Amino acid sequence: MIELVSAERCVACDRCIRVCPTDVFERGADGVPVIARQDDCQTCFQCEANCPADALFVAPYTHPQPQDPAVRDERRLADAGLLGSYRAQIGWGRGRTPGALRAIGPALGPAAQATPITS
């Protein structure tokens, strides 16, 4: 579920607003998107994946959790490398490579890689 939009990092590009399939965000008066309908978030990570400034944090749960202030503590999330971490895992962004092709399936061991697939 979307938990944080960093006003400090945001470049007001509106990509998160445009890609959100459930219209979770609204454009704030200062241009920074605000989380207007958090309960509508489907935890699809599209906003975080498309944010060029790594200004978003989507927590990996789809249902409301007991209030955990750590998921909205920007400094703590930044220090832990969690702001934009989904985007980094899928290799999106300048200078990144998909060290996370495993994001689409399990890592294959040497035996599985050497075994040809026959039909």
TrEMBL record:
Assigned keywords, A-Z: 4Fe-4S, Electron transport, Iron, Iron-sulfur, Metal-binding, Repeat, Transport
Organism the protein comes from: Kitasatospora indigofera
Matches recorded under PANTHER family: ADENYLYLSULFATE REDUCTASE, BETA SUBUNIT, L-ASPARTATE SEMIALDEHYDE SULFURTRANSFERASE IRON-SULFUR SUBUNIT
All residue ranges annotated as the 4Fe-4S ferredoxin-type domain in the record: 1-30, 31-61
Protein name: Ferredoxin
Record-linked Pfam families: Fer4_10
GO molecular function: 4 iron, 4 sulfur cluster binding; metal ion binding
Domain of life of the source: Bacteria
